[in-house]
Design a protein that fits this description.
Elements (H helix, E strand, L loop, with lengths): L2 H20 L3 E6 L10 H6 L7 E6 L5 E4 L5 H7 L5 E3 L5 H9 L6 E4 L6 H8 L7 E2 L1 H7 L5 H24 L6 H14 L4 E2 L2 E5 L18 E6 L1 E3 L2 E2 L2 E6 L5 H20 L7 H16 L12 E3 L23 E4 L3 E3 L3 E3 L3 E6 L2 E4 L8 E2 L3
Parallel strand pairs: 1-5, 3-4, 5-6, 12-19
Antiparallel strand pairs: 1-2, 2-3, 7-10, 8-9, 9-12, 10-11, 13-14, 14-17, 15-16, 17-18
Helix pairs in contact: 4-5, 7-8, 9-10
């Protein structure tokens, strides 16, 4: 058994122990294959399999789970990946019936995970397969997935290296006349070459950006501030890098305001220690920026969050703001980003993926903490 299989067994054991504490006989885990950096793929957490269509994992209180996946033609790939004996690949129209038949073998009571992302019609079809009420088990896997195992941390670290490579290429290839979407494509291509399976990336450019956004067909101009939120996924685990690149030499004012973001970033990192609330990160960042005269710009509509959980998507601590309450724990991974709209310079970006350790937050992205630029 390799270390990945051992890691999966340990994850399953923790889930089943949590089920036992709640007196559950079985857990029905649904995921709709709409992969999102802010929503945990709980089925993949227990299988290491990225489903292409809606799929269901049936977890007994003891023993091995069973997987029912769609589409039917993807069965061979699943059987090569999933370390369980029962793997059934069916057409979407058969998913509810097949899962219901397997779930009938599970001890009662049953709980369900993923009901909030089910289409309404499918939810009715699935629940009709049972003659018992399904409890809500949506927090079981999320709670256990709040911190990274050694295998998961390796994957987040690899994703962070890919993010660094994406930004390196951005700085290398950006030039006057290039369209924003062409620059985004170059970054995407570089990260795929480095092993990324996906990228939730945003790139915007202009002399005075209002916010980060999706790239458009606008052509880059001399003096543009190019802001990038680069978020590659590697083997189901995500890292994010936020930086600012100027297509030309920065002004003294731009340097000064970016130094403010650097100071805020350091304050946020210092607040990210085990046992403290994630809200303290936001408070530390906002204090630096607020003390500089920009307190009103530290809230919506100018600023939404100072970071969020990352790893296998955005699990705990979710969004990092002054109203958030989750307590930081060792081996949590997250992005801390004091991205900020400043009226004199526009929106600028700075942020790193970090892991929470006993000594504080350790950045996993290694791109230097500075304002990047290239003279024309």
């Amino acid at each position: 058994m390799n270390k990945v299989e051992q890691d999966l067994q340990q994850r399953l054991a923790r889930v089943q122990a949590s089920m036992a504490q709640r007196g559950l006989g079985g857990l029905i885990v649904y995921y709709g294959a709409q992969h999102n950096m802010l929503r945990m793929d709980q089925l993949r957490y227990l299988t290491d399999f990225k489903a292409l269509g809606p799929s269901i994992l049936l977890v007994p209180k003891e023993g091995e789970p069973s997987l029912v996946l769609t589409p039917a033609w993807d069965g061979d790939r699943a059987r090569e990946t999933v370390p369980f004996k029962t793997v059934e690949a069916v057409e979407p129209s058969e998913l509810a019936r097949t899962a219901g038949a397997l779930a009938a073998k599970l001890p009662k009571p049953l709980a369900i995970v993923g009901r909030e992302v089910m289409p309404m019609g499918f939810a009715r079809e699935l629940t009709a397969q049972f003659n018992v009420e399904l409890a809500d088990g949506g927090d079981i896997i999320k709670a256990l997935g709040a911190t990274r195992t050694p295998v998961e941390l390796e994957r987040v670290e690899h994703a962070a290296k890919i993010a660094d490579e994406g930004f390196r290429v951005l700085c290398e290839v950006a030039h006057v006349g290039m369209r924003e979407y062409e620059l985004a494509a170059e970054v995407e291509c570089a990260m795929q070459r480095a092993g990324a399976e996906d990228n939730f990336g945003l790139i915007a450019a202009g002399s005075h950006n209002l916010a980060i956004r999706s790239p458009t067909d606008r052509r880059l101009e001399a003096g543009d501030l190019i802001i990038g939120e680069i978020t590659p996924c590697y083997q189901g685990h995500i890292a994010q890098l936020c930086r600012t690149f100027i297509l030309g030499e920065p002004s003294a004012l731009q340097r000064q305001k970016y130094d403010l973001l650097l100071e805020a970033h350091q304050a946020g990192l210092q607040a990210a220690t085990p046992g403290r609330k994630s809200s303290e990160i936001a408070s530390a960042v906002n204090k630096v920026i607020g003390d500089a005269g920009y307190a009103e710009y530290c809230r919506q509509p100018y600023m939404r969050t100072r970071g969020h959980g990352l790893g296998m998507s955005g699990v705990v601590p979710y969004d990092v703001n002054e109203d958030s309450g989750p307590v930081l724990a060792r081996n949590m991974t997250m992005v801390i980003h004091p991205n900020q709209y400043i009226p004199e310079t526009g929106y600028m970006m700075l942020g790193d993926t970090v892991v929470i350790e006993d000594g504080g937050a350790r950045p996993l992205t290694k791109t230097p903490l500075r304002l990047f630029w290239r003279a024309n």
